[in-house]
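Researcher: Re-running this chain for the archive, since the previous output was lost when a drive failed. Same request as before.
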Amino acid sequence: MKGIFPLVATFLTLTTTTTWAANTEPLSFCEKYALEASTQVDTNKSASCGLSGALWNKGYLDQVSWCKTVKPAEADKANAQRSDQIVQCLAKQVMTGKALKGDKQDNSMLVSFMVGRYLKPATEWYMGMEQVLLPQGRPLTAAEKNLAAKVGVKNAYKVRVVVTDNMPVPNDLLGSMAVLFKSNTARETGRAMGYALLMRPQYANNQQLLAHLLGYVAKIEQVGHRAFLEQYATEMLIDGYNQSKLVKEAAHAAK
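Model: Regenerated structure tokens:
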């Protein structure tokens, strides 16, 4: 598999919006809690996760009523537990090569559980590993710098190529996302971790792979590490690897 694997996800801590009239009173804590909880329940059904039990059997009004009987920390804990279970469900789908099915607009809400929950620590891990890896790599040759410029990289002098069979995986800090990395590293031919380009020894001289990875670097320069990871993870979950817009853009640049 070319390129970075999605960290998953991501993330924007799930926020709730409403289309109610502008003069509607601000939502109370428990109303916000219940909206998020209801979205999680809908996600469970839409993604066919089959999750059940006390966390999953209350509707919106029941969630509001329950929330009023407990401390805010306990309500937040319940939403966090549901979110973690959703993440684990989606992780298993990705591990088996499945993208989410159904309406893409709906799925963009679903993947917020995968993406939103881990984007911040995932980005921190990703950028930290970049700094660890850069000193281990070699700079681009003159010809490779020309290739980098061709695919849109502005700071080719920062790029380092690391020839290695070791594809880093995050620790338990990223929870279920670590499972995704561990299950897919064996299939990766290379990975872009910011300006650090990891290439397996048997692909060390593969210019098409290098151009593909440089395409990711160009995108990271345009939008930043966090936005890149968020888009990559979201597309991976909704569209799958081969249909990911980022993957297609990188493949086109490599031609």
